[in-house]
Design a protein that fits this description.
The complex is a heterodimer of chains A (365) and B (510). Chain A is α/β, with parallel strands linked by helices and 365 residues long. Chain A has three domains: 71 residues; 174 residues, Rossmann fold (3-Layer(aba) Sandwich), CATH 3.40.50; 67 residues, Arc Repressor Mutant, subunit A. Chain A contains 18 helices and twelve strands. In chain A, the strands form two sheets. Chain A has a nine-stranded mixed sheet with strand order 1-2-6-5-4-3-7-8-9, sandwiched between helices. Chain A has a three-stranded antiparallel sheet with strand order 10-12-11. In chain A, helix 11 packs across helix 12. The two termini of chain A are 44 Å apart. By secondary structure, chain B is α/β, with parallel strands linked by helices. Chain B folds into three domains: 166 residues, 2-Layer Sandwich (Ribosomal Protein S5, domain 2), CATH 3.30.230; 237 residues, 3-Layer(aba) Sandwich (Rossmann fold); 74 residues, no CATH class. Chain B has 19 helices and 18 strands. In chain B, strand 6 and strand 7 form a beta hairpin. Chain B is elongated. Classes of the chains: A alpha/beta (365), B alpha/beta (510). Chains A and B meet through helix 17 and helix 18 of A and helix 6, helix 12, helix 16 and helix 18 of B.
Chain lengths: 365, 510
């Protein structure tokens, strides 16, 4: 690590100074060491600081925090990537208020094409499936999926990318030594192994709600485009979409049922001009990422279903429109419950359907 | 002057003869009862003294000693009052000693001599019959209960005076004539499976549970019909034989929960204790042992609603009786055995808010909370549950639909047929249903063909079943095959059985 890395950490960790001001200071002074060494008069002379900011910048106790943060970063085997480093994501450098440094576990690659996939934390099965499928297919075309590792859509986006064996980047709203939400511990380990977990917050930072908008600006800032899979009226992913527009990124939205509360946000985005996503091609075409044209999703499924036996096909076809309850399948396919449930198990074993909690079944994506 | 009156005590669920010996001799006036009586028996002295006096007899002012033989067994309750009073009357010559020889007397006295109802009359009557007693004097309110026992003259009596008159031949004994009742369960005012609309898969699961005597767990959000379904399970269980009914009635008689005017409990009991119940309440016990809920549910259904809310201790105490079908309670002075062959039905919410199984997004629990809640469920007791079924709320259209639904009677017929297959198969092996199959018997009764074995292997690999699921699946598959009247277990039977183990699946643990 560089010798002045502690100064970077110090400057980056001043939460009471806005990222924009910090970035301008860095540009003015050229190096955090110089910012550190600057006295009140010099800081004033830069014309960037109010009196209060100067107070924060000259508060030398903050240096202790940086020392401790440096130690804990070493402990969790994390890198500090400064804005001057070559591995710092190129697109992120050009937003108004880039983080001066990113703490990173895993590996960031500079030449990656990043696309963000974000959405509701309390998503429906539709949202979860779409997140997974879009991520998986984009990842297959060499895209690195960026998301926030939150519950719901975010986690599924990461999983989709990992399933296709590709890289994915999680941007956290807390310190990188914190697993939030806690059930994602396993997922986080996977992401670190096959990609990177990054954060601009010091290790030990709690996942406080005011940190998340700042996190969202990085998600959109890193990416070429932001795909919102499912978002309610006040979803945090809409904030990400706003940032994306501010930063001049493409915004994509997956349409949903107009009755579904979980899709109010995405449908609104589409009405306001976001690009509609009916397949991964829509995203890749817009961003001019080469891909071989694909048959529509349902066509692929239908050809797969041809291979099944008659009863299996009847049941599988009933599931084409989304999850259905066992009793309903049985009634509508005219089979006894026990027969239906046996066939469903066989379909599950051969990887066609998936059982959801509450006796619902859906086709595997 | 010495006299002997026969009465009866209850140990466990069986009656035993108690001889009340009375000796009245000269000495300082006093009244002692020996023979390990409890407080109720010690207090009987005062009741008897007043009752004798108020019935128009003189209470002897001499030294009265009473012994309750056998003297080494504890006796309890107020049912000896009548016999004690008659002992005094016999010793003072107010009634003839020879006339009471072949009779048994049961009843509690009030101070004016009236005879009141007592608990446990049926086992006493059975005991009387077995010991060659010809006349059983008992409280009027208990007459019908005892009338189940054939070959015994049952004489209901109102008060002490009347009893003395009957014994002395001054008034005529009116034997209680049992109204011949069909030993047919009465379902008329009852619940029926036809009341339940929709929920086909749960109904099917309950039918399997009833057919093989399997314990069952229902998971579902509040108000989706778990209790409604469980309440209807007894209606599809096969009707009880006379011997079974007698045993159930005995237990209910001892517990004193027999409804008035009922001689024989002939519908299978359904017990649903509240979740605040203690372990003693559930399995029985106490310083004076009483049957617990699991014994009261003997040959019936024990329903534990809000299963995770029960105390851990109470649930743990259920394990042994569920396995053995009896519960033995050991106390310093006695060790009692109550039968406890019951089908356990548990109901639980799938998570704290209860909506995890509904459409996603409705549940407000975090995955961690859900996991915590479920881990409470999947404790050791789940080893005793063969079938786990998820209940989802019915849609309004289903409530309204007038599609024909099967009635309990139709289902019960099938269940009886399946039970008979099992009874025939396990003749002489001391087990009665598939749920009691021991692992050693699997190779004989649950043999799987090659196809089934490969399915099972696949399931364990792909769905992440735990090992304990294996034997449960085999037992349930056996039952389903029996329901299908199939000698061997076919893939379709096996797969259905596998579907009843959703709690073991990895997908569930997320």
């Amino acid at each position: 690590m560089k010798s002045n890395v502690k100064y970077w950490i110090w400057l980056n960790s001043l939460v009471k100074v806005t990222p924009r001001v910090k970035y301008q200071l860095l540009k003015y002074f050229g190096d955090p060491v110089l910012v550190w060494e600057a006295d009140e008069a010099e800081l004033r002379a830069s014309g960037l600081c109010t009196r209060r900011t100067v107070g924060h910048l000259t508060d030398k106790t903050a240096r202790g925090h940086a020392e401790r943060a440096f130690e804990s970063l070493k402990r969790c085997d994390a890198d500090v990537i400064t804005i001057y480093d070559s591995s710092y994501p190129e697109l992120l450098k050009h937003i108004d208020d880039p983080p001066l440094a990113l703490y990173c576990r895993g590996r960031l690659e500079n030449d990656s094409v990043y696309i963000a996939v974000v959405g509701s934390r309390r998503a429906t099965w539709y949202g979860l499936d779409m997140a997974k499928r879009l991520s998986r297919e984009m990842a297959k075309h060499g895209v690195t999926i960026v998301s926030g590792m939150a519950r719901g859509v975010d986690s599924h986006a990461h999983r989709g990318a990992l399933e296709s064996g590709c890289r994915t980047v999680a941007v956290l709203g807390c310190g990188i030594d914190t697993v939030y939400p806690p059930e994602n511990r396993g997922l986080m380990d996977e992401i670190i192994k096959h990609g990177a977990v990054i954060s601009e917050f010091l290790p030990g930072t709690e996942p406080a709600r005011y940190n998340f908008p700042a996190r969202n600006r990085i998600i959109s800032g890193i990416s070429l485009g932001v795909t919102v899979v499912e978002a309610g009226e006040k979803s945090g992913s809409l904030i990400t979409a706003d940032y994306a527009l501010e930063q001049g990124r493409e915004v994509f939205a997956v349409p949903g049922n107009i009755n579904s509360y979980n899709s109010t946000g995405t449908n609104k985005l589409i009405r306001e001009g976001a690009k509609i996503v009916t397949g991964v091609g829509d995203i890749l075409d817009e961003l001019k990422i080469g891909h071989n044209s694909q048959k529509s999703y349902n066509d692929v499924k239908k050809t797969e279903l041809m291979k099944l036996s008659r009863d299996e096909k009847t049941i599988a076809q009933r599931l084409l429109n989304g999850p259905v309850h066992l009793d309903v399948i049985s009634r509508e396919c005219g089979m006894s419950v026990q027969m239906t449930s046996s066939i469903l198990l066989m379909l599950e074993l051969s990887g066609f359907v998936e059982q959801l909690p509450g006796n619902y079944y859906k086709l595997v994506e | 002057m010495y006299s002997k009156i026969i009465s009866c005590g209850v140990l466990g669920i069986d009656g035993h003869i108690v001889e009340i010996e009375t000796d009245i001799s000269n000495g300082l006036p006093g009244f002692d009862i020996v023979g390990l009586g409890d407080t109720a028996i010690r207090e009987a002295r005062e009741r008897v003294r007043a009752a004798v006096k108020n019935s128009g007899f003189d209470f002897p002012l001499r030294k009265i000693t009473m012994n309750m033989a056998p003297a080494n067994i504890r006796k309890e309750g107020s049912s000896f009052d009548l016999a004690i009073a008659l002992g005094i009357l016999a010793s003072t010559g107010n009634i003839s000693k020879s006339a009471v020889e072949k009779s048994m007397f049961i009843g509690e006295l009030s101070l004016d001599g009236e005879i009141k109802a007592v608990k446990g009359v049926l086992p006493m009557a059975i005991c009387a019959n077995q010991n060659g007693i010809r006349y059983l004097f008992l409280p009027e309110a208990n007459a019908r209960e005892a009338s189940v026992v054939k070959g015994l003259h049952i004489i209901p009596v109102k008060d002490l005076k009347e009893t003395a008159a009957i014994i002395n031949g001054e008034s005529e004994a009116k034997c209680f004539e049992a109204v011949e009742e069909e030993n047919q369960p009465d379902y008329s005012d009852d619940v029926d499976f036809a009341d339940v609309k929709g929920q086909e898969n749960v109904k099917r699961a309950l039918e399997v549970a009833a057919s093989g005597g399997h314990n069952c767990l229902m998971l579902g959000s509040p108000g989706c019909g778990k209790t409604m379904l469980a309440r209807r399970l007894p209606t599809i269980l096969p009707s009880m034989t006379f011997e079974e009914a007698l045993e159930v009635t005995k237990i209910h008689s001892i517990a004193g929960i027999l409804p008035r005017g009922v001689s024989l409990v002939n519908t299978r009991p359904f017990r649903c204790p509240h979740h605040t119940i203690s372990d003693t309440g559930l399995v029985g016990g106490g310083s004076i042992p009483r049957p617990g809920e699991i014994s009261l549910a003997h040959y019936g259904v024990l329903f534990l609603d809000e299963f995770p809310e029960f105390s851990k201790k109470a649930l743990e105490s259920l394990r042994q009786p569920l396995e053995d079908g009896v519960i033995t309670i050991s106390r310093v002075n006695a060790s009692l055995t109550y039968p406890a062959r019951t089908t356990l039905i548990c109901a639980a919410n799938p998570c704290r808010c209860g909506h995890f199984l509904d459409k996603p997004g409705k549940c407000t629990c975090t995955p961690r909370q859900i996991q915590q809640y479920l881990s409470k469920l999947s404790g050791p007791l789940l080893d005793r549950v063969d079938i786990c079924v998820e209940v989802t709320p019915v849609k309004y259209q289903q409530l309204e639909s007038d599609q024909p639904v099967e009635t309990s009677a139709v289902i019960r017929e099938r269940v009886e047929r399946t039970r008979k297959i099992q009874l025939d198969r396990y003749k002489g092996m001391h087990i009665y249903s598939n749920s009691q199959l021991q692992p050693a018997m699997f190779s004989k009764f649950c043999r799987l063909d090659k196809k089934c074995r490969s399915i099972l292997r696949d399931v364990f690999d792909r769905l992440g079943m735990s090992a304990r699921a294996h034997s449960r699946i085999l037992k349930v598959a056996r039952t389903i095959a029996d329901m299908d009247m199939s000698e061997e277990i076919r893939p379709v039977h096996l797969t259905e059985a596998i579907q009843y183990r959703s709690l073991d699946r990895r997908a569930w643990n997320m």
